[in-house]
Specification:
Layout (H helix, E strand, L loop, with lengths): L2 E2 L14 E6 L3 H13 L2 E6 L2 H10 L4 E5 L7 H9 L6 E5 L17 E4 L4 H20 L2 E4 L2 E4 L4 E4 L2 E3 L3 H12 L5 E2 H9 L8 H14 L5 E4 L3 E4 L3
Parallel strand pairs: 2-3, 2-4, 4-5, 5-6
Antiparallel strand pairs: 1-3, 7-8, 8-9, 9-10, 11-13, 12-13
The structure holds calcium ion (CA).
């Protein structure tokens, strides 16, 4: 299997830690393009053509980011995503063609961190990868988030209010996490919809309102998740 070493064509020393991208893509032209752009940016790229091979690879070496195509021979990208998430929190960036988007399920629901629609700009893809890796570092640094009497443990996906565990749906949990991570900032409904449900989610912004209401009710956060009229929501630190 081809596994490209990092290109040293620039000859420039950087302080960046080496990062390894696992690229799962069966189309040669797209795979070559993606590999080239990541390698130029000093990523090590491991390129595999099927999910089955990729899952084995993930178990055998440290991967910092997975770039995952949906249309693959054998198990498809959604299934690969699901299987990765059952055992690893490695960031996953999905490559999506519009006609591959099933109606009800999206990569986000399976735990993907972001996606780009084909045809995509490889520069944008690499930029998204950097954004995910930055977020990932912050996430690792802050496994426990707090807002008032509410504590969120991301690795366990558990929320507690006054030391009592509170059952949240996945979307409620994700929404709460995004709000606390961005405490002090106003987040628009569109931004929240995008962050939590993904841009292709067919719902409207009312979905956000409904979930916010649930979070406030379940966690007693009426005063700490505030509505910013005509804009969106903000978590406020006491
Ligand atoms: Ca494909």
């Amino acid at each position: 299997m081809p596994a490209a070493a990092p290109l040293s064509e620039s000859g420039v020393l950087t302080n960046r830690a080496p990062r390894t991208v696992l690229l799962i893509e069966d189309e040669e032209s797209i795979g070559n393009l993606v590999r080239t752009y990541f390698a130029r940016d000093e990523f090590t790229v491991v390129w595999l053509r099927s999910g089955e091979e990729a899952l084995l690879e993930l178990a055998s070496q440290k991967i910092d980011l997975v770039v995952l195509d949906i249309g693959l021979p054998g198990i498809d990208g959604f299934e690969v995503c699901r299987r990765i998430r059952s055992r690893s929190q490695v960031p996953i960036l999905m490559l999506t063609a519009r006609d591959e988007e099933p109606d009800r399920i999206t990569g986000f629901e399976l735990g993907a961190d972001d996606y780009v629609l084909k045809p995509f700009s490889p520069r944008e893809l690499v930029a998204r990868a950097h954004a995910i890796l930055r977020r990932g570092r912050q996430a690792a640094y802050q496994d426990v988030l707090r807002l008032g009497e509410v504590e969120v443990r991301r690795s366990e996906r558990v929320a507690r209010a006054d030391d009592q565990e509170v059952k949240l749906t996945n979307k409620e949990f994700d929404l709460l996490t995004v709000l606390i991570e961005n405490a002090g900032l106003v987040l628009t409904r569109e931004k929240l919809l995008d962050e939590v449900w993904g841009m292709t989610y067919p719902g409207d912004t009312r979905t956000v309102d409904v979930h916010i209401a649930q979070l406030r009710r379940k966690l007693g956060l009426q005063d700490l998740i505030v509505t910013v009229r005509g804009v969106g929501y903000k978590a406020v630190r006491e």
